[in-house]
Amino acid sequence: MKFSLVIAEAAIESIPEILQHNKIVKEHAVRLNKSVNELILDINYHYFAMKKAGLKHREKRGRPDIIHFCLLCILSTPLFFENQIKVYVHTIDNKVIFIGENLRIPKSFLRFEGVMMKLFLEKKIISNEKACLLEIKDMTLEQLLKIIKPDEIIGFSTTGNTKRLEQILAENLKYKKGHYVFIVGGFQSGHFSEESLKSMAKIFSISRYSLEAHVVISRLIYECEKFLIHQKPN
Length: 234
Hints:
CATH topology of the largest domain: Alpha/beta knot
Helix content: 25-40%
Number of strands: 8
Order of helices and strands: EHHHHEEHEEHEHEHEH
CATH class of the largest domain: Alpha Beta
Number of domains: 2
Distance between the termini: 17 Å
Largest sheet: 8 strands, mixed
Radius of gyration: 18 Å
């Protein structure tokens, strides 16, 4: 059985063209001794620039910390250590970050943001052993799913049918050699776009509360590990 996790419409991106000549953004770049096209959009620094420019869907953008939290939750688990789950980050501006096996990311957000700046600029990060740790490509969610070729695609959203995670897995992970993709939103508020929703065969909610992405992912990873243990022969 194979698992893939896609953090979709993730609120991480380089500075959009509409903001590249904004005074606030340019001053921030100067403080960091960077060029504007090296920066990652961050609401902590660029909120007023985003608001003034009327940036489309700004309520879902400029939160790279969400992706940091999510990756910390995934990449330090036995499921990832044992290469039983592939991880992808699909960004709100239709790029996909491919996560390499055995990747360890900085626990410090500032260092993580530095890694992301380098990735968005250079498109690929290679280890000293010549292994590809991170790679980013222009790609829609639909195109990514065509590459993965899963047997089932399960999305998680507050608009979905509410069920316990344990029940969702038991009812939908039916094939021992199946490949299952889980999709979790990587943004702070709002809902998936219609385009993303069309890619999901089934959509579930796991709580009557609106849970943050890293909470959903933590619970999902744990339940997947339990599910796999129960599938192993005695």
